Amino acid sequence: MKLPHRRHVLYLAAGAAALSAMPRIAKAQTYPNKFVRLVVPFQAGGQIDIVGRIISQWLSQQLGQQFVVDNRPGAGSNIGTETVIRAPADGYTLLMVGSSSAINATLYDNLKFNFIRDTVPVASINRIPHVLEAHPSFFAKTVPELIAYAKSNPGKVSVATTPKGTGPYMTAELFRMMTGIDVVLVPYRAEAQMLTDLLGSQVQVAFGATSAALEHIKAGKLRALGVASAARLAMLPDVPTIGDTVAGFEASGWSGIVAPRNTPVEIVEKLHNEINAGLAEPKMAARLVDVGVTVFATSSAQFAKHITEETEKWAKVIKFAGIKAD
Questions:
Q1: Per residue in 159-203, pLDDT tens?
Q2: Residue 14: what are its φ and ψ, rounded to 5°?
Q3: Does residue 16 register a pLDDT over 90?
């Protein structure tokens, strides 16, 4: 029997591949054909929730179906995360994630999921800058002065933070680890209460979200000693980075969107492209800046790398400080 010509074989193979890809392409083209649920694993009204609602509104407008925010707070974001991981991998249940996802991987001993293994990164959205702030009456006006005083007076400086395991708390622990200073961390249940006590001089120094303290810093009611970001912030251009004093220091909150593992690649790419288009749109970017965050647009692969690096970074800090979940 005469064997088919090689070119004909290749043609048939290509045709078969194209046919097998057609259902996936068709699914991506028709997606979404019903409402999409974006689970936010935090209380309504917080910064990540607000960002999630901004992105949901954009995706609803661009894709012609409602993207509905579903708040599922609890257990440091683990309840909402598990809800999405157990959902069908069809693109209709997505998760708004933050740095807590990278922290929780080590902080909690008995998670019923592996965040990196069980999710697929869709798109990074923003960074949340942290600031080392002080009451104006506190004598240290710079990061070097604070470090010098803390080294000369071990255990005498109390540093207020948001709850254990949150971004600002972990940033404070990273600061302790990299400087070798002995300070007492005082975690508050809510950043609003922490700021109230800081403004009232009941605590002298704190790590918190720049957005929450910005108005008070600009009014002179608080002093920014340094920002934890890798570069100076446009919102506080005169405030040096902590890294200017502590080489290699960098810590910021962040948020983005992931989907359950095995979500079709075509759907992930469609969502990624639409989100990045929104982040590049000037009005959208301005809305994010207004809520105190900076745009953090990457490829899906870069976002995956970022999540892995953050997970490894905070694992080292948690083990160094011996932090346990409450």
A1: 999 999 999 999 999 999 999 999 999 999 889 999 999 999 999
A2: -65, -40
A3: no
The amino acid occupying position 209 is A
Contact between 165 and 317 (Cβ < 8 Å) = no
Q: Which pair of structure tokens corresponds to residue 234?
A: 């446009």
Round to whole Å and give the CA distance between 149 and 78.
38
Compute and round to an integer the Cα radius of gyration of the chain.
23
Domains of the chain: 35-127+253-321 (3.40.190.150), 129-244 (3.40.190.10)
Cα–Cα nearest to 67, from 31, 99, 43: 31
Strands (E), 10-118: 36-40, 67-71, 93-98
Please report, as a single letter, which amino acid is at residue 233: L
More confident residue, 8 or 230: 230
Residue 91: name the closest of 279, 256, 255, 262 by CA.
Answer: 262
Query: What does DSSP assign to residue 242?
Result: G
Q: Looking at the chain, how many residues does it have?
A: 326
Residue 98 identity (one-letter amino acid) = G
List all residues 6 or more positions away from 100 whose beta carbon is below 8 Å from its beta carbon: 41, 76, 77, 165, 166, 167
Mean pLDDT of the chain: 92
Distance CA 121, CA 142 (A): 38
pLDDT tens sequence across 195-245: 999 999 999 999 999 988 999 999 999 999 999 999 999 889 999 999 999
Got the DSSP string for 63-78? HSS-EEEEE---GGGH
